[in-house]
Each structure stands twice: as structure tokens, then as C-alpha cells.
Amino acid sequence: MSAVEYTFFRILRLLRRLPFNPMSIGNQKVIFLEYFKNFDKVEAVKGIFGEKTTEVLSHLTVELSWIFGYMYVDGSDGHLVISKNYLNNGDKTDIYLDLIHELCHVKQYMEGKELFDPRYEYVERPTEIEGYQYCVQEARRIGLSEERIGCYLKTEWMSEDDLKKLEKSVNLLVS
Ligand SMILES: [Zn+2]
Fold it and tell me: How remote is the CA of residue 125 from the centroid of ligand 1, in Å?
């Protein structure tokens, strides 16, 4: 994703705050558990929602969108927005880890936490650190090397300094 695309993505987020969102035309809405079958059986997901896992995932709306980028939780009602392009063409392991990360945000939203707290930079926001720590823990459990996890954390729009901060937050062993 280029800087231009990222800016576009930020604008789309702002548009979402309007009562009617013209950018959602043509987007498809599905139920999380019907789309990502058996995710309620995944230990890492059960670790997030506990006994409520199946209930939460069978009520969670996923908006499959033509937006550029990856996925995020909509701060207005806590539903998940995923780029169709990313879902079709992205690395499957990255998508899996992103889903774990975003489900952490779904839980945080349910707890009333502010997901886009502007007092913090992205990599220093407590909700982001929690989401990253949790998905990195899962990445290690499924056998990803520290180097591969480092690749996962690195996104086009993150500066080297920010990446270093994030690596530190998740105790990544960087050589
Ligand atoms: Zn996040």
C-alpha cells in the first residue's frame, strides 16, 4: 500500500463517521462465524472471548470491502471491515494473525475501550500493543521464527523507528 493509498484509507475512515457512508456501497456483509468457519474452536480466539466465543462470533458482522489495505474494527459499532483484495491475495498466515489481532480489538470495543485514542501514536497505543502482543504470542505458538514475525510486523506505512518500538513491545528477538 502506497502513502497515497494510506491517505485514501484514512479519508475512508473519516467518511465512516457520516450517518450515511457512500463508500459502503457495493460492500458485502457476512457473519464472522459463517465466513470463517470453526474459528470459535481456535484456542487463541477462545483465549480472547472465553465462554462467549461462539456467541460473539455468531453476532459479529464482517464487511467485505473494496478498500485498499488490510482490516480494521469500525469504531462506530465494533464490526470488522476487511479488504476483499487482501483476503483474496494476501498471505494466509498474515491474514490469520491479523484476524487474531482484530478480534482483540473487537473485545476491547465490547469493553468500552477507545480504539483510535488520538492521545497515542499508533505503535504506543495500549489497545494496539495488546493486540500485537496477543497475535505475536500466537505466531510463536504456530512456529513462526522471530524473523518471520518481524516481516509480519513491518507494514509499508510504518517508519523504522515505529517498527523498532513495536518490536520492543512484543519482545521480538531481532538480530
Ligand atoms: Zn490494531
Answer: 9
**What pLDDT, in 10s, does the model give residues 29-59?**
999 999 999 999 999 999 999 999 999 999 9
Distance 22 CA to ligand 1 centre (A): 24
Beta strand 28-31 with 61-65: parallel, antiparallel or unpaired? Answer: antiparallel
| Nearest alpha-carbon partner for 69 in 81, 61, 52 | 81
Rounded distance from Cα 81 to ligand 1 centre (Å): 12
Q: Please state, in angstroms and rounded to a whole number, the distance separating the CA atoms of residues 171 and 62.
A: 31
Rounded Cα gap, residues 165 and 170, in angstroms = 9
Predicted TM-score (pTM) of the model is 0.85
The rounded Å distance from CA 18 to ligand 1 centre is 22
